[in-house]
Design goal:
about 325 residues, alpha/beta, seven-stranded parallel sheet, two-stranded parallel sheet, 10 helices
Length: about 325
């Protein structure tokens, strides 16, 4: 089995991915500074002896070098992943999302890692009205975060071409599921909505609620990452990871109301800077290169997410 590094492994996506890797018998090393990741996310039930946790920051090149020692495959999930935060504090976001990514690529090159799998974002597409979004579309980032992800993809391709490091960028759309944080002011829309409804509060919608997103369940994102470990002919490629369907926020609230058995009356506020209007993905390239096929539809994924939040709910 492979020795694998997961950066940001205490976060939402990273912890779900790390647990899946451990279940499959891999040795996993997590690098996280716990600024947004949570230690309780690492309370895995499987193969604890195969897990190593390093507390460190990807802005520190030496920490990246230590984490990369003996590693064969890198899943780079660590980031400041919030559009609003990158607008408010572009310097810190750049240091983490761009400098940190270059540190890890250089450390992976020096350690002769075999493959570097980069967590990118659909934010790169911006507000181009063309739907669905295809990987060959010209990027149009509307926020520092989106630009950082574009730069990370380009650095990955450059390291692949210059140094032979196998890189692939997975361009995530709107990921949701268990372990997602509902309490941060920057939290994604689904955990925010669920958290508000469970507390008996009206969920806040920024805009008119008719903006739409391609929501993809965390299990499908983990599945895509596992496929990317061994896929052939993916060197330097960028691939959309999504459900291939889009849902308006008002429709999402109706489904959540049905699942939770609650009448939902949202509060509508002004749109936020950097937010896009509509987003949905063409996932044909993922099907072709990775043999990826989403397994969990929106309703099933929301039911599983609601079960998790009900069992882990705390007053915030």
């Amino acid at each position: 089995m492979s020795k694998i590094l997961v950066t940001g492994g205490a976060g939402f996506i990273g912890s779900n991915l790390s647990e899946a890797l451990l279940k499959r018998g891999h040795r996993v090393r997590i690098l996280d500074n716990f600024s947004t990741g949570k230690r309780e996310n690492l309370n895995f039930q499987h193969r604890r002896a195969s897990l190593e946790i390093l507390e460190g920051d990807i802005r520190d090149f030496r920490a990246c070098q230590r984490a990369m020692d003996g590693i064969e495959i890198v899943f780079h999930q660590a980031a400041l992943p919030f559009v609003e935060q990158s607008v408010e504090d572009p310097l810190t976001a750049h240091a983490v999302n761009v400098d940190g990514t270059v540190h890890l690529l250089a450390a992976a090159r020096d350690a002769q890692a075999k493959r570097f799998i980069y967590a990118s974002s659909c934010a790169i597409y911006g507000d181009d009205p063309t739907l669905p979004k295809r990987e060959e579309m010209v990027p149009n980032p509307l926020s520092p975060y989106a630009l950082h992800k574009q730069v990370g993809e380009e650095y990955g391709r450059l390291f692949c071409r210059l140094y032979g490091l196998e890189t692939i960028s997975l361009r995530y759309f709107n990921v949701f599921g268990p372990k997602q944080d509902p309490n941060s002011i920057y939290s994604a829309v689904i955990p925010r909505f669920i958290g508000a409804i469970l507390r008996g509060r009206p969920p806040v919608v920024f805009g008119d609620g008719e903006q739409s997103r391609d929501f993809v369940f965390i299990g499908d994102v983990v599945y895509a990452n596992l496929l990317a470990m061994a896929a052939r002919r993916v060197r330097g490629e960028t691939v959309n990871i999504a459900s291939g369907r889009r849902t308006a926020l008002n429709q999402l609230l109706e489904v959540l109301g049905t699942i939770l058995g609650e009448g939902v009356k949202p509060i509508y506020q002004r749109p936020r800077k950097g937010d896009i209007r509509h987003s949905s993905a063409d996932i044909q390239k993922a099907r072709r290169l990775l043999k990826y096929q989403p397994k969990t539809d929106l309703v099933k994924g929301l039911k599983e997410t609601v079960r998790y939040f009900r069992s882990h709910f705390r007053e915030g």
